[in-house]
Design goal:
This protein is α+β, with helices and mostly antiparallel strands and about 170 residues long. It is built from 3 helices and 7 strands; from the N terminus they run H-E-E-H-E-E-E-E-E-H.
Length: about 170
Amino acid sequence: MSRTNGRIVSWVLILMMLGIVPSVAGRTRRFLGQKKFLPYTRHLPTVDKLELLKLQLKDERWDGEIAATKVLQGAEAQKIAALWRRQTYTGSQAACHEPAYAIKFYSRRKLIAYATICWSCNNMYFIKPNLHRTQSFLGGNKQGEQLSEIFRLAFTEREQGSTREAIKVRVPE
């Protein structure tokens, strides 16, 4: 191979690496859950409103009662939905489901997803649509902890006597 051809091949390889490596590095983690969960997790549609719910537990079980709610609209709702989509969803099976919180997503005034969330074993159960199974996620990683913190702060401030209007949920960028 001549020196000129060697340089051309080297440049082609360098350009290929510059194009391939960033595209691979920028990918989101592969979805390891069941495909039926994708439209309500990683591929959740654009939302304009959501409700955070603190569930009333009796003997560590949820009987359907809601202790408190926090409604978010616009940019705040969209940021939390974006964080929801970025969760690392896994194929693990749930050891329990003792949810402390739930979340409802709305698009154009229509409820599109309603899920209870358990951070004891890091899973969610969809009430709407009823998918008859739990979907696991990494609740202890950065995104899982950010989501947990959003719920914790939304309801800790309320319990300290703040009014609904005064509660601001800080959503990580």
